[in-house]
């Protein structure tokens, strides 16, 4: 978790930043600001009315990269996902948006006080005020008068400088994920190409109580039997005949029915069941009713239309594609716990290893919990080096009752601790042989 820094910033606006503030603040607009000095004065007043003094705002600080003079540029966004009354008040003043400030920290040439010089200011949608992997959390109080105690803490400034630049990182990730986006596009088109609808003209109970046998209407359009065979155990939904009038008849070559148009109104479609099998010779399709649909039909809560369409939407495939796309978008936008994830997932060598000695053997902790002497675990374990670490003779051992010889170690330097051998054997016995 990020360390929470709390500090004060003295804001100084450039003419450009002042005009940016006036463009979205309620006090006026950039064109009516007049000269540069007047624009800076009015912009400072407008910004002070938004960021009230002596109120701590929760903000997210991001690395804006080096400026024209080599200074560290920092982007500050007022958080929208934090429980903060000042933040909520700002979002309300901006009509549901939040504030993004871009600038750098400098020292006043006369007083030496720290100042945060703003290059730009924008009102951005509230979704961009959420925490992401490219930002550092802080509590900031804004002021229009300098002070030696103000400014970014040195530790925070160093942490921001080490963070990846969001724009450059995002562009790099997008380039690397371009093939994945094309692949998901192929999967989506393939799933949509599997969609189809068939019309039935009658149905009856099957030999199994939960089965229905539908007689399909081949006179309206050719039936896609190949598609029906490919969706065994997959769900079909019922669509009233009101939607069939908009279905274009395919060519007389016997081609399958076209995919369902994306704008087809399916708000009243309901799940019927899954395909069991089909019989092209008899023109029949057998469906196993969904449990909920079976109950509704038995209680006459819904009535199955005498003639309607059975629709296959490939919902499972499309849902998986949507989930993968959403995951790629989150990765591109930096919404992850690890700010370096998008780097080392492509280059594993860039992943940081834990320091030597940081990882502890769980067996030592188990010794402490069971109040067993730590010597027992170390002495009874096989040595990690070949030929070393002979087991000590246990107390009370005699030539009449010698201790069994130790089992040979597994290849690859894998040993087993005698203290926990019973638990280890019980654990391995419960695993599948393919995992061993």
Summarize this structure briefly:
The protein is of the alpha+beta class. Helix content is about 30%, strand content about 25%.
Q: How would you characterize the overall build of this protein?
A:
With 436 residues, this protein is an alpha+beta fold. The chain folds into three domains: 5-163, no CATH class; 195-313, Elongation Factor Tu (Ef-tu), domain 3 (Beta Barrel), CATH 2.40.30; 354-386 and 413-419, no CATH class. Helix content is 30%, strand content 23%. It is built from 13 helices and twelve strands. A six-stranded mixed β-barrel has the order 1-5-4-3-2-6, surrounded by four helices. The longest helix is centred in the last third of the chain and has 19 residues, at 315-333. The radius of gyration is 34 Å and the shape is elongated.
Residue share in β-strands: 15-25%
Number of DSSP helical runs? 13
**Separation of the first and last Cα atoms:** 36 Å
Order of helices and strands: EHHEEHEEEHHHEEHEEEHEHHHHH
Shape: elongated
SS class: alpha+beta
Q: Uncertain runs with pLDDT below 50, 5 residues or more?
A: 242-257, 357-392, 410-436
Average pLDDT, rounded to a whole number, is 75
Tell me the strand order in the biggest sheet. 1-5-4-3-2-6
Percent of residues in helices comes to 25-40%
Strand segment tally: 12
Rg, Cα atoms, Å: 34 Å
* Largest beta-sheet characterization: 6 strands, mixed, barrel
Total number of distinct structural domains: 3
């Amino acid at each position: 978790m990020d360390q929470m820094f709390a500090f004060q910033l003295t804001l100084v606006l450039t003419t450009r930043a002042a005009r940016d503030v006036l463009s979205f603040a309620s006090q006026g607009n950039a064109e009516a600001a007049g000269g540069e000095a007047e624009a800076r004065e009015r912009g400072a007043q407008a910004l002070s009315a938004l960021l009230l003094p002596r109120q701590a705002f929760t903000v997210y600080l991001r690395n804006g990269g080096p400026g024209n003079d080599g200074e560290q540029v920092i982007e500050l966004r007022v958080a929208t996902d934090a429980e903060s009354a000042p933040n909520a008040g700002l979002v309300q003043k901006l009509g549901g948006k939040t504030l993004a400030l871009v600038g750098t920290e400098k020292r006043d040439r006369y007083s030496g006080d720290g100042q945060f010089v703003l290059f730009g200011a924008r009102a951005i949608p509230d979704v961009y005020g959420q925490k992401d992997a490219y930002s550092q959390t802080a509590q900031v109080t804004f002021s229009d008068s300098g002070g030696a105690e103000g400014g970014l803490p040195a530790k925070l400034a160093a942490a921001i400088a080490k963070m990846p630049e969001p724009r450059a990182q995002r562009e790099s990730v997008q380039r690397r994920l371009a093939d994945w986006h094309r692949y998901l596009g192929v999967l989506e088109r393939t799933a949509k190409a599997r969609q189809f609808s068939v019309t039935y003209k009658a149905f009856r109970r099957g030999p199994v109580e939960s089965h229905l046998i539908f007689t399909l209407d081949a006179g309206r359009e050719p039936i896609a039997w190949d598609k029906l065979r490919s969706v065994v155990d997959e769900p079909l939904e019922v669509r009233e005949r009101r939607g069939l009038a908009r279905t274009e008849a395919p060519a007389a070559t016997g081609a399958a029915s076209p995919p369902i148009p994306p704008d087809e109104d399916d708000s009243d479609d309901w799940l019927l069941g899954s395909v069991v099998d089909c019989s092209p010779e008899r023109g029949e399709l057998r469906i196993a009713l969904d449990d909920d649909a079976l109950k509704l039909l038995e209680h006459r809560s819904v009535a199955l239309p005498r003639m309607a369409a059975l629709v296959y939407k490939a919902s499972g495939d499309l849902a998986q594609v949507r989930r993968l796309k959403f995951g790629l978008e989150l990765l591109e936008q930096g919404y992850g716990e690890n700010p370096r994830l998008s780097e080392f997932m492509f280059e594993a060598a860039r992943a940081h290893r834990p320091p030597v000695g940081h990882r502890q053997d769980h067996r030592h902790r188990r010794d402490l919990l069971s109040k067993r002497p730590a010597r027992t675990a170390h002495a009874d374990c096989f040595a990690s080096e070949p030929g070393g670490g002979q087991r000590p003779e246990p107390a009370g051992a005699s030539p009449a009752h010698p201790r069994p010889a130790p089992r040979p170690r597994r290849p690859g330097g894998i040993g087993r601790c005698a203290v926990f051998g019973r638990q280890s054997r019980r654990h391995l016995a419960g695993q599948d042989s393919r995992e061993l």
